[in-house]
Amino acid sequence: MRWQGQELGVADAAALPGMEQLNGLVRSVTTPEFAGVTFHEVLCKSALNHVPSVSAMPFDWTVNPYRGCSHACVYCFARGTHEYLELDAGRDFDTQVVVKINVAEVLGKELRRGSWQHEPVMLGTNTDPYQRAEGRYKLMPGIVSALTESGTPFSILTKGTLLRRDLPLLREAAGEVHVSLAMSIAVFDDELQHLIEPGTPNATARLETVRAATEAGFRVTVFLMPIIPHLTDSIAAIDHALTRIKDAGAVRVVYGALHLRPGAKQWFLQWLAERHPELVSSYRGLYPGATATAPKAYRSWLAKRVRPLLRVHGLDGHAEDDNVRGGPVAGLASRADARAAPPIVTTSRGRAAAGPRAANPGARRAAEEASTRLF
User: Fold this and answer.
1) How sure is the predictor about 11, in pLDDT bands with cuts at 50, 70 and 90?
2) Which of 13, 49, 148, 301 has its CA 20 to 30 A from that of 189?
3) What is the pLDDT of residues 203-248, one digit of tens each?
4) pLDDT digits (tens, 9 = 90+) for 81-138
5) What is the Cα–Cα distance from 309 to 244, expressed in whole angstroms?
6) What's the rounded Cα separation, in Å, for the pair 310 and 318?
7) CA 219 to centroid of chain Cα atoms
8) What is the b/e burial string over 195-225, where b = at least 16 CB atoms within 10 angstroms of the residue's CB?
9) CB–CB of 348/341 below 8 Å?
10) Alpha carbon of 65 to those of 103, 125, 137: distances in Å?
11) Which residues are registered as beta bridge partners of 49?
12) Considering Cα of 355, then 358, then 362, then 366, what sign does the dihedral take?
């Protein structure tokens, strides 16, 4: 085990570039339990991230207890945020994980401020709050408790099966505030999933988590995202995915084509060249230059495949870009959730309709961490 930077405010000459003066750095830790991953434990000054008003997202606030993610999804849109730490968006994003060890305490203080309007808070729009690091640091129970005690509605989007550990706590919370849960499952072929999302639980494990959450009383949404051109967009693959999602008890599906934002794009195309070189020219046609989204023609073609299958399987669902800009997205916290009844019981405590936003001027880095895209 290696310990670094154990004195607050002291530069660590052995730290990775960009980490030696990381604000609030307590120490950097490696452990055999997480081979190849370094955890950089920091004391954060704030926990709530304000989503820029120009964002298409339906929520205004997020909490991200971790930066970097050992899920190592090659397409992850959040990769570019690691470059602010002078770390790369590739291997470093997967293996250099920043942990906000005091996030629950700081969040509790922020939620107790008189200016807090009890607006919905979203977890999981940047890096996954239930990634493997959560098994070590156990930050989510404190975050959930802080949100619940303050009367703040919230939702969680995850690929992590660690969610099951907290289902009793989340069920309790749902008796007090509006809580929504969503599971992201992009790949249902185990071999491809291992290659493209090497640090994630497989689809079967995630579907078992969906079933457990359903049995706990939640109406779970599955994000079938991203659908990856030429790899997971066949009728057979989509039908197989929806069959399994329905069998697990999910009530709705949100689907969308692959986004390739800066940082993620380079890393994904490198992976594609190694694993599927025959597809590189096609991808350069679909995502030319700095283009991050699949062309409208492809998205329309995809919708014509997915929508009839949703009806066949009796699933509510829609495309990611079907929503009115800034409008509610099923399965995610939205401004409307501040007034909605909780999903399990019919009484709630302490929720208030969203009022004027508390002032929180954010720099570009904070805006990126808050996120304007889901994947």
Assistant:
1) very low
2) 301
3) 999 999 999 999 999 999 999 999 999 999 999 999 999 999 999 9
4) 777 677 876 788 889 999 999 999 999 999 999 999 999 999 998 899 999 999 999 9
5) 13
6) 9
7) 18
8) bbbebbbbbeebbebbbbbbebebbbbbbbb
9) yes
10) 6, 11, 10
11) 62
12) negative
